[in-house]
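pasting for ref
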Amino acid sequence: MPDNAIELHGLKKVYRGQGGEPDKVALHGLDLGIPAGSIFGLLGPNGAGKSTTINIMAGLVNKTEGKVRIWGFDQDENPRMSRASIGVVPQELNIDPFFTPRAALEVQAGLYGVPAARRRTDAILEKVGLADKAEAYARTLSGGMRRRLLVAKALVHAPQVLVLDEPTAGVDIELRQMLWDYVRELNAAGTTIILTTHYLEEAEEMCDRIGIISQGNLVACDETSALLARLDAKALVVTPEGDADLPGLPDGVRGETREDGALVLHYRKSQHSAMDLLDHLRGQGITIRDMATEEPHLEDVFRELTRAA
C-alpha cells in the first residue's frame, strides 16, 4: 500500500476558448496528496475545480500539465492500472434504462476485464440494497435506487480508491444513512474514500481530512479537527432568568438575542475568555440560569477560506 492513494503534482487544466472567447483556467498547478485508507473530503464552491480534478483522476478529462498518480501508478506511464485503481460514482444519474441492475454490473465488470469467476455482482447488489431489484429494468427504479446502482457499478472492479461525487444529493434520510454505513464498511476494509458534497455537516462527520478548492487553487488541506481549530471564533450562549435585554459588550464582542430569549456572545478566543464574559454579564445585573459554548463548524471555516480566496 502506498502512503498516498492519490498524488497530484502541478496539476493544471486550461479549457481553450471557442469563437474568440478567452481561455478558462480551471486548475492552477494543483498539488495534493490523499493518504491511503482515509476518508477525504474535497470541498469547494460551484465552479471551483472539484469536478475537473475528479474527471482528470478518473481519466475522463485530459490534463494540460502536471502529474497524476493513482495508487502508485503514474497516469501517463501506466494508464490502464491507474484507471483500474479508481472507481467514480458520478453526480448525474447516467444509467441505461433498458438494463437490469445485474446486467449493468456484468457489463461494467466486463469493461474492466474482471473474469467471470471473480465477479461479485450478487454480493454487491445485496450490499447496496438492490438484491430484490436485480432483474428489474433500471427505468423502473426510484431515484434513490438509481443512486445505489451507480455506487454498485463503481465497485465491480474492487477499486482501491472510491470517489463519491455529491452522493446524497436529493436522496432521503434512510438512503443517506445506508450509504454512509456502507462507506464506513468499505473504508474499514481498506478502501480510500474521496467525497465531494455541499452538505458540509456530512463532510465534518465523515472525513478524517479535508481539502478546500477555490477558483482552481487549493486553499486548505488538513485534518478536519485542525481545520476547525483554525478559526479563532467561539460563541457563549447564556440563558438568563426571565427576560433580559442584551447589555453593552466589550470591544470585539458581538451579541444577539435568540427567539427563545437566550443571549449569544460571539468572541475571539485569543482576545476574551468565557469566564470574563460571564462576569461582565453578571456585572450588568443579568442573572444566569444556564450557559453553554459553541465551537465553529466546518461551514464557518469553509466560508472564511473561500471568501479570503
